[in-house]
Each structure stands twice: as structure tokens, then as C-alpha cells.
Amino acid sequence: MSVAEQSIAGAEARGHGFLASSVGRKVIMAATGIVLFGFVTVHMIGNTQAYLGAEGFNGYAKFLHTMLHGAGIWIFRAVLISAAGLHVWAATTLTMDNLAARPVGYRAQQNVASTWASRTMRWSGVILAAFIVYHLLHLTTGTVHPNFDHTNPYANFVSGFKVPAVAGFYIVAQLCLGLHMWHGVWSFSQSLGLSHPRYDGLRRGFAYGLTFLVVGVNITYPIAVLTGFIH
Amino acid sequence: MAKHFNLTLHVWRQKNAKCDGKFVEYPAENISPDMSFLEMLDVVNEGLIRKGEEPIAFDHDCREGICGTCGMVVNGRPHGPKERTTTCQLHMRSFKDGDNITLEPWRAEAFPVLKDLMVDRGAFDRIIAAGGFISAPTGSPQDANALPIPKENADLAMDAAACIGCAACVAACPNASAMLFVSAKISQLALLPQGQPERYLRVRDMIAQMDAEEFGTCTNHGECETACPKGIKMENIARMNRDFIKASLTYRPATIGGGAG
Ligand code: HEM
Ligand code: SF4
Ligand code: FES
């Protein structure tokens, strides 16, 4: 039974602040989600340069590392790490609250409006977190890459994806990203209070369109290497 | 006269808030398709009473879809399979001979089961008491046209005010979130001039109480909207979030000398 059983929380509870409140944490989740999806989209666009060959791709990597005299990439990293940390924190605490809110389940629950994507957000999220760690160790630091060359990102990318198990994991991770985006891109606008009957269809359309674009293009990279189109 | 038929019920039986409960099977025989769902339960209960057994406890009052008390989960859906229908408005013609029907109480930490299918929805009352009202001095009524209200706002406020507090939204939500209910109660006032003075205080107070009652949080599944017998829209949740963001950004702590000049 809830602590609040007999009482009106009132002014003290109101003072518990934005970050402690459920809606406040939803807003954090949505705002950080936008940063992360924004990054994923830009990252996808940047990587299309893999199709320009080694010179184009390595030039792009060099640009990333030298912009603003090398400070640029660290600014990006700081923003992304904070966003990811806050997102995972909000997702974890909210998920725990939600599980606690229904300690006894139904024998015959029928889901009518929710989607597979919406019900698996926490799982697609956890797989994404694992993937992000792996991806950084693989192509950023090279820690888990068998023949990593700090001066040649293009070669790292090609030789990395030549391993079918690695390429397979990247593809699975992209499908999880797709699930997360399918629901998340629509969901964040709702959480931030952006809903209007005239634009609601557009919000859904934007979510599905962006999901297909980002995931569709990202999946071509491992496939292009595996099939020898990129070599 | 339409043909009568037989069903099998699987009902959650629980003696009181402290005991564990379990599902018990009951036959429901000779059921008329013209009966309401609650009348069908009345018939089953009469049989149980005649046999000297404890009847199935369920909440009900108006039996015409306006009081919001008759909540139960029928085959995994709050208020049964029909949209925009409360359990009391559900007719047995929605079922057919030989059907199995599982009946469960609303499941939420915030709604302890009192007995069988009855839950304590006092959490909703406390959310309303935390801010779901306006503090208007009474007196002689003012002229009806003194407060201009756009037609659209009046309509939207009326739509939100259709909420009967049945809690089907909580029951349907995989997170047991009460946000559809709370947002309807916030919107009906936020859309009207009378609700403005306390608008941003209200949203923080009601959400604080909602959290204190240990409801879950909305992840935008949309189950609530489909389950709601009154067609309350998720757009209200967006409005509530919007007001909460604004309230959090602009809130000023109370000062002792406030307004002293
Ligand atoms: C690149 C990585 C990620 C991106 C782009 C992302 C983005 C998003 C967005 C935009 C939302 C919707 C926010 C809202 O509805 O208010 C969301 C929700 C969520 N995310 Fe993530 N997320 C990522 C990683 C993660 C990780 C690592 C986890 C878990 C450890 C996670 C778990 C969740 C959960 C549980 C939700 C709530 C479900 C919901 O609102 O329906 N996400 N995510
Ligand atoms: S919003 Fe709908 S489902 Fe929820 S309490 Fe109100 S009438 Fe019932
Ligand atoms: S008994 Fe009043 S709404 Fe069903």
C-alpha cells in the first residue's frame, strides 16, 4: 500500500522538485533522447562518406578530430556522454517506478493500442547501451579490434566489418535502434507536450520516416563490406 | 425472445485487503443476451447466495455509465471488449454461448483490492483534493457573457470534464499510470478562465500527489485512450506536461512579504 494512503502530499511534495517528479524525468528522457537521436542522424549522414572511399572517409575523420583546434570533438563527447548518462538514469528510475506501480499483473492482459516497439523500449535501450560501449571499444579506441590502425579509420571500418559475427551484431543493434526510434521519436514530442490534432499524423510520419532513413542507411555499411561492395 | 446461453466465469476472489486471492471458476447459466454485464453477475450471485456461498463483490452504482464505479477487467480489457462502454453498459450480446470470461480487479499499487473485484480508489480522491478545484468566492452569479470563452476551449474543457474517474486508464496502462485521469482533471480547468489563477500551482500539486500515490509514469503506449469509456484523449497528457514544464520553469517560492509593496 502506498505511503500516501491517508494524506495529501501538498506543499512539501511540491518542493520535491522537477528531477524527482515523474513528468520531470520524462522531460529529461525526451530532451536527452532528442540529443541522442540528433547525433545518430548526423552520424549516419557523416558515414555516407564511406562510399567515397578511403580518402574521403579519412578526411572526414580528420576534420572531426581537428575542428576548433581539437576542442570540437571533446565538446561533442561531453554533450553526448551527459545526455546518455541522464537518459539511462531517467529510464532506469522510471522503469523501476513503473514496475513497482503494478506489483500484481493480469492473468489475461490484452494490449490493444501499444506496439511491440513501445513495450520493448527498455530492452532495445539496454541492447543499445551495450552496443554503444562495444562500438566505442571497437572503432574509436580499437581496444577490441584485432588489427586497429589509429591513422586509418577507413581500414579499421572495412576490416572490422569483414568479421561476420561483428557485422551481425552491428545489424542487430541497428534493428534495436529502429525499435527505439519507432516509438521514441513519436513519444518525445508527446512527453514534451507537443500534441495537436492537426500535427499528430505528421508526428507519427516523422518518426517512421526518420527510423527507416537512419536504420536503412546504417545497415548498408556492414552489408556493403560483407558483400565486398566496399573493400 | 433471443436464445439464452451459458458461460464460464473465472473470477478473482479475495476475502479482504490482507488475504491472498485466487481465481475461482463459476458457471453462468441461462444468460439472456439482453442482460447487462452486471445483471449477469447479479444472476450468478443469486445462485451463490442460494447455495449459501459468498457472492462476488463488485462496485456499482448508477448502472448507466456516469458514476464510474463499476470497474473490472473483463478478459484482459478494462470494462470489457467494447469501446466507449462501461461494464454496466456492456451487454451480454457481446459474448456467445460457451465463452470463458476472466474477471479481475484493477491492478495497481495505488489501488489496494478491498474484496474480490472491488478496489480502493481513494488515491484519485486525494489527487483531486490536492488541487483539482478552483477557489472561487461564492456570491451572486455574474452575467453569463461577462467571461468570454472561445467555443473551441469550451468544447475541449467539456470533453475533458467527461471523465468519470473510473480508473480504466490506470487499469489498462502497462505502467499503471494515472496520467490520463490527472490530465483530464487538469485540462478541464486549464482551458477555462476560472481555472487560470491556480493553473500552474494546480499542475504541480496534482502531479506531486499522483507521484506520492505511487502510480507509474506514461510511456505513451496509448492503452489508456482506447480503454477510456469517455473517449478522453492523450492530447490532455501533452497539455499537462506542457503546463508542468512551464510551471517548473516559472515557479517562485512564496515570500513572507509577498505583495506588500
Ligand atoms: C542511442 C541511444 C538512445 C537513444 C537515441 C534513445 C532515445 C530515446 C527517446 C527519444 C525516448 C523517448 C522519450 C520519451 O518518450 O519521453 C526514449 C525512451 C526510452 N529509452 Fe532511450 N534512447 C537511447 C538509449 C537508451 C538506453 C541505453 C536505454 C536503457 C538503458 C534506454 C531506455 C529507454 C526507455 C526505458 C525509454 C522509455 C520508454 C518510453 O518512453 O516509451 N534508451 N529513448
Ligand atoms: S480518463 Fe477515462 S478511463 Fe481514466 S478515469 Fe477518466 S473516464 Fe475513466
Ligand atoms: S455503475 Fe455507474 S458507471 Fe457503471
Keywords:
heterodimer; A: 231 residues; mainly alpha; 3 helical TM bundles of succinate and fumarate reductases; disordered N terminus; B: 261 residues; alpha+beta; Ubiquitin-like (UB roll); Fumarate Reductase Iron-sulfur Protein, Chain B, domain 2; 2 domains; 5-stranded mixed β-sheet; two-stranded antiparallel sheet; 7 strands; elongated; binds protoporphyrin IX containing FE; binds iron/sulfur cluster; binds FE2/S2 (inorganic) cluster
Descriptive notes:
The complex is a heterodimer of chains A (231) and B (261). Chain A has 231 residues and is mostly helical. Chain A has a single domain (3-103, 113-226), classed as 3 helical TM bundles of succinate and fumarate reductases (Up-down Bundle). Chain A is built from ten helices and no strands. Chain A has helices spanning 10-14, 17-20, 22-47, 54-66, 71-101, 116-119, 121-140, 153-161, 164-191, 200-226. In chain A, helix 3 (22-47) crosses helix 5 (71-101) and helix 7 packs across helix 9 (164-191). Chain A starts with 9 loop residues before the first helix and ends in a 5-residue tail after the last helix. By secondary structure, chain B is an alpha+beta fold. Chain B folds into two domains: 5-114, Beta-grasp domain (Ubiquitin-like (UB roll), Roll), CATH 3.10.20.30; 121-135 and 148-250, Fumarate Reductase Iron-sulfur Protein, Chain B, domain 2, CATH 1.10.1060. Chain B has eight helices and seven strands. In chain B, the strands form two sheets. A five-stranded mixed beta sheet of chain B has the order 2-1-5-3-4. Chain B has a two-stranded antiparallel ribbon with strand order 6-7. The model of chain B has no long low-confidence stretch (mean pLDDT 95). Chains A and B meet through helix 1, helix 3, helix 5 and helix 9 of A and helix 2, helix 6, helix 7 and helix 8 of B. Protoporphyrin IX containing FE binds next to helix 3, helix 5, helix 7 and helix 9 of chain A.
Task: Write down how many β-strands of chain B occur, each being a DSSP E stretch of 2 or more residues.
Answer: 7
Distance between the termini of chain B: 78 Å
How are strands sequenced across the largest beta sheet of chain B? 2-1-5-3-4
Provide the β-strand percentage band of chain A.
Answer: under 5%
Give the overall shape of chain B, derived from the CA principal axes. Answer: elongated
The total tally of domains of chain A equals 1
Number of helices of chain A: 10
